[in-house]
Write a structure and sequence with these properties.
With about 230 residues, this protein is α/β, with parallel strands linked by helices. It contains 8 helices and 10 strands. It starts with a strand and ends with a helix.
């Protein structure tokens, strides 16, 4: 069985449509099949805030792999929205310890992803991380997940599948994107209209980008599931 972790519902919206929502022993998660693979999905929240529930979820099933997926920010030029991050090393903005990624496929170019404790929004923040830490991408969860596994002696292999959600030259994109995030998780039309009026002319471009990213992430996940080695 394959475990899938992601911070936010809006990132894995297309993936959740293939699965069934359930709750076992007080742990809410999703379960089902993608292709011929049995999978379960757990939402960690940004920064891996639900560590206790995450550890309990990992004990519910016998997982052969843990795929950590979602969007990452590009810290250097030369990348495109929706491009798959080729990650070799996982760094942290505040700690020197790093984790090496075990690849399941051959790759020509290896890049470093850095985990930060807060959203990295401005161009100056992005360039500072890129230059001071030699990082290519940024997220808020991956290093924390590796470290959690180390602290709890969990040996299940982690497979990162991250795609580019914002570019280094976008100075305030995440500020607007954070306002937009509840659009897919909310059932309230009042909430949706509030988001629409808050963003005004930015709403349509944000919606189109998010739908593109959701579908791209599902496609990348399916491709990786097909290439995972047999347990």
């Amino acid at each position: 069985m394959v475990a899938i972790t992601c911070a936010l519902f809006d990132e894995v919206y297309e993936i959740t449509r293939l699965l069934k929502q359930t709750k076992i022993n007080g742990v809410p998660h999703y379960i089902g099949k993608i292709f011929d693979k049995d999978v379960s999905l757990f939402l960690t929240k940004p920064g891996l805030k639900k560590k206790g529930l995450l550890l309990r979820w990992l004990k519910l099933y016998k997982f052969d792999f843990v795929i950590h997926t979602g969007f990452a920010g590009a810290l250097q030029p030369g990348f495109e929205i929706g491009q798959l991050c080729d990650i070799e090393r996982v760094l942290h903005a505040d700690y020197t310890e790093h984790f090496q990624v075990s690849h399941t496929q051959n790759s020509k170019t290896k890049q470093h992803i850095i985990t930060a404790n807060k959203p990295i929004i401005t161009i100056d923040e992005k360039e500072d991380l890129a230059h001071s830490k030699n990082a290519t991408f940024v997220d808020m969860e991956l290093w924390n997940l590796y470290n959690l596994f180390k602290e709890n002696n969990i040996n299940t292999p982690i497979v990162p599948i991250k795609i580019i959600g914002d570019l280094v030259a976008e100075d305030d994109f995440l500020e607007k994107e954070i306002i937009f995030r509840p659009y897919f998780s909310s059932w309230s039309w009042k909430t949706k209209l509030k988001i629409l009026f808050s963003l005004r002319t930015h709403f349509i471009p944000l919606y189109k980008r998010k739908r593109f990213l959701q579908k791209t992430l599902l496609s990348c996940l399916k491709n990786h599931l097909n290439h995972l080695p047999q347990s």
